[in-house]
Amino acid sequence: MAFKLKLTGATAAASLLALSAAQANEPVTLTIVSWGGAYTASQVRAYHEPWMEMNPHVTIINDDGSANALAGLRAQAQAGNVTWDLVDMLPSDAQLACDEGIIMQIDHDAILAAAPDGTPASEDFLPGSLGECFIPQIVYSTVLSFRPDAFPADGQPETIADLFDVENFPGRRALQDRPGTNLEWALYADGVDPDDIYDVLRTPEGVDRAFAKLDTIKDHIIFWTEGAQAPQLLADGEVAFATGYNGRMFDAIEVEGMNAEIIWDGQVVEWDGWVVPADGRNLDAVMDYLYFATDTQRLADQAKFISYGPARASSAALVGDHADLGIDMGPHMPTAPENYFAPIVLDNDFWVDYGDEMRERFANWMLQ
Amino acid sequence: MAQADAGAAFEDAQTDSSGRLTTADGTPLRAALRRAERRRKVAAFLLVVPLLAFILTFFVFPIAQMMWRSVDNPQVVRALPNTLEALRDWDGRELPGEEVFAALHADFVVDSERPRREQAMGPLGIRLNYELSAARSAISRTARSAPGFEAPYRDAFVSSHRLWGQPELWRIIKREGRPLTASYYVAALDRQYDEDGSVIMRDENRRIYVSLFVRTIMLSVAITFLTFLLGFPIAYYLSILPMRHASLLMICVLLPFWTSLLVRTSAWIVLLQQQGVINSTLVAIGLLDDANRIQMIYNMTGTIIAMTHILLPFMVLPLYSVMRTIPPSYMRAAKSLGATPFTAFRRVYFPQTLPGIGAGGVLVFIISIGYYITPALVGGQSGRMISNEIARHMQQSLNWGLAAALGTMLLVGVLALYWLYNRLVGADSLKLG
């Protein structure tokens, strides 16, 4: 009996050994969480497909959960059942998740590829974009767009200040129902220099000043919640101005043929990128994917499918034509010099610290 | 089975020597009956066990957990045990002394030696930031350098972040240094603590929740009333039609029920927006000037219209099921006794529909008080409800404590209204079909 048992044990050990030897090509399924729609599609074509061709044993499942990524990460960590392998999220949320210890800290130079000329990753990514736990992919911006047919040909709006000028530029404005971007623009339109906006907003007087400026257009505002609503409102002719993400606006204008134009003045610039949940199950595959998907060529490739700028300096020169439309994507990048003349770089530290208070103020202001 | 046993026990009842009733095999009758009764109870209990387990796991447990979250407050206690000890005798006025800062330093050192997943300073910063803006960056910035601080610690901390030099942060640490807190409820009622620790109203420009609660209740009452107004005639007509036609019409009532909620809401956007079907039609037939198109969506009107439509079946179905059971002969009898049609309706028919109205009303009201997708899409700024804020705190700001406090208040409010309804009308009269 004892002998028999021993034998079975040995067999089991042997088969285990065989298993781990075969592990290299064992099928792996990665769950990658992103924003869905055109954005996920661009990642599939620029990153997933070429990488899966090199690694046929891996299957990638796309999950459109990024809008609530922080809630999802926290719930999975608390339940001790982490099913997401890689998550695309905003740096402010990434910082919160990092503080909570539910995503991995990243040593960028050890994990990411250097630029083709040998510049280490930590210097190649745009200044200020790397986070403790955050690997940026793209630069996107929130921009103001308008319908040219809502204004006379010789009186088209050109600046953020025009958004706040209801006398010369009548018509309704679609703004997002959160304080971010709106407060920055109110101060910018009120004459604050883009570089000083957050210093002013950190003072109570500065906040009052921003809300006083917003008061001037309050009766002309429709608030939108979901990203897709803004171009829709503009396309339906419900509003004359709409704020929105530059990629969605590009899609609506260039792909859908909507009659609208983008104002690049005062574009609010932010990063978007990857975080790795702590205690994920397929860390080897995830690291391999990350090394590939964030290299110079891949980041440049993504710009062929959507008009978001690559987060690496070395990628800018490689940005080419749109894969389907054939138009040169260079001028549509938020980071193109002719668009990047008065950017407001979103201050994530400010929004993580003051976000709750500002949202309360803003909600109160909306209710009044 | 158990009953049969008991019956058998009765039939075979005999009297033993001392005069007590016994069964055929000599056991006292009372014991035999009790055993049979117990067996029946166990069988009945076993039958409901699956349902009970389901309710406990998916209903009672999550709700209890949510209520627990609204008072649970482990972050400060876990992160700053030494500091809290040192703060015990602090009067809450001036900045605490060096010994408190030394204890704070000790807490930071202890935490920096923990494995990353167990570090307590990150959650602490997020928790304190709910009470005081920028407290998060005070913690996280200090956490990196604090283990290297040298005495005097007070100066080192104050120069690493300005908030350490403000008594307000220390008051919050002391106040929240208990495993249970009321501060989520304080915030949910638009209130805050002042310097002495008493509860006062929040700054006027930061109050939101109380007015949202009031608005939510008002909107729900309006929607309930409108569904009643629209549903009553439909239900009445359905109940007097022959079954064949009634089923056909019933399908029309239920059709929107089977359509996706998002599709129905989007349909309302297409109809109601300023460039939408209704406005354009009114302009085309000359009833409306092109410049004065009516704003019917992205405001309270939009929420009321869309939600009334969506919740209408919940009113019609209970009404219909009650009306169907009212014999038409009652009305005829009333009229033959001299009542006018209106009096007959008011005194005879209408009171009999009350159980249906009650059921429909309670159903529509309770559903609409917790609705959030439709208000988020068509409500604009004036048509938002409290559930939109709860959803935002659950999914975006991740202040689950506050979300739980708001949710608990909503739940208690609904239960209170239900209790009131029960006292006034009686829950027994509810009829859902």
- Distance between the ends of chain A: 82 Å
Q: Could you say how many structural domains of chain A there are in total?
A: 2
Query: N-to-C SSE series of chain B?
Result: HEEHHHHHHHHHEEHHHHHHHHHH
User: What is the percentage of strand-forming residues of chain A?
Assistant: 15-25%
Number of domains of chain B: 3
Write up this protein.
The complex is a heterodimer of chains A (368) and B (433). With 368 residues, chain A is α/β, with parallel strands linked by helices. Chain A folds into two domains: 27-139 and 272-332, D-Maltodextrin-Binding Protein, domain 2; 140-270 and 341-367, Periplasmic binding protein-like II (D-Maltodextrin-Binding Protein, domain 2), CATH 3.40.190. Chain A has 15 helices and ten strands. In chain A, helix 2 packs antiparallel against helix 14 and helix 3 (69-79) packs parallel to helix 4 (91-100). The longest helix of chain A has 21 residues, at 2-22. The model of chain A is unreliable at 1-23 (pLDDT under 50). With 433 residues, chain B is mostly helical. Chain B has three domains: 2-69, no CATH class; 75-181, no CATH class; 209-429, MetI-like fold. Chain B is built from 20 helices and four strands. In chain B, helix 16 packs antiparallel against helix 17. The longest helix of chain B is centred in the N-terminal third of the chain and has 41 residues, at 29-69. Chain B is flat. Chain B starts with a helix and ends in a 9-residue tail after the last helix. The A-B interface holds A 67-68, 70-71, 74, 96, 98-101, 105, 177, 211, 221-223, 225-226, 236-238, 278, 349, 352-357, 359-361, 363-367 and B 116-119, 121-123, 125-126, 129-130, 133-137, 140, 205-208, 211-212, 273-276, 298, 376-377, 380-382, 384, 389, 394-399.
